[in-house]
Amino acid sequence: MPEHVLRVGALYPELMNIYADRGNLLLLQKRCQWRGIGFELASVTLTEDLDPDAHDLLYLGGGQDRDQKLCAQDLATAKRASVQAAVERGVVMFGVCGGLQLLGEFYELDGEKLPGLGLVDLRTTRERGPRLIGNVAIDVDLDGQSRVLAGFENHGGRTVLGAGAQPLGRVLRGHGNNGRDGSEGVIGGPRENIVGTYLHGPLLPKNAWFADWLIARALGVSETELAPLDDTFERAAHASARRAAGV
To answer: Which residues are the active-site residues?
Structure first.
């Protein structure tokens, strides 16, 4: 039996999966398996209850507006209390694009406010004007170490963080949360275990170090406790993503 097992719950993978989100899950699985860490992946759909004790990491990807509306209503009603209980227990909640938008208070779309989970102080509004699209790189400071995340963004929503929220990083190239204030994503929670970003493409294969940070945080161990891997290809993928963003 492995010493550690990472239990991942993918929320609505049949609906919130338009930005190659499956690639993020596969990368988590592979980096665990290569280290001898057990990996369990479970899908939590619209019709299923969420057990707040069954997972170490909850993942919510991006979806079309119609699908995001369905998921927002289900999260705000059937699953909200369970997600909040899981986060309070220390479960990592990771949202990408539409998943980021639903971590906050609401997403206002065509005059309708889709309810969010209310886990962090942010609000998103679909504004008139062009979508925020392109390669992007941000500077992040996690556990006192400054590093770069690189990916791709494509969103019509403008996300604004409230006074009680901290951005995941600062934009080096690209648009970020709203194209105005230089913020990108969000990080918060009792143990910095709520993380959201607009970066996809998918994100984790381009930033394997960030996948390791999520794994360590979800398992409750230090990154230094994770066995080193030969990341020759992963470093090349990261360098390519940075070059595409001009960093």
So the answer is: 97, 200
Separation of alpha carbons 210 and 105, rounded Å: 26
- CA 31 to chain CA mean position, Å: 17
Q: Which CATH number characterizes residue 204's domain?
A: 3.40.50.880
Range of the domain at 79: 5-245
Greater confidence (150 vs 67) lies with 150
- CA distances 40 to 32, 58, 84, Å, are 10, 12, 21
Half-sphere exposure of 69 (CA within 13 A, CB side): 8
- Contact predicate 15/61, CB 8 Å: no
Strands 169-173 and 183-184, sheet pairing: antiparallel
* Contact in structure between 29 and 9 (CB atoms under 8 Å): no
Q: What is the pLDDT of residues 202-241, one digit of tens each?
A: 999 999 999 999 999 999 999 999 999 999 999 999 999 9
The closest of 50, 52, 44 to 15, measured between CA atoms, is 44
pLDDT-derived band of residue 65, with 50, 70 and 90 as boundaries? Answer: confident
Give the total number of structural domains in the chain: 1
- CA dihedral 10→12→16→22, nearest 10 degrees, is 30
Q: How far is the CA of 180 from the CAs of 95, 125, 152, 160, in angstroms?
A: 21, 14, 17, 10
Side chain identity, residue 244:
A
Classify residue 200 by its DSSP letter: B
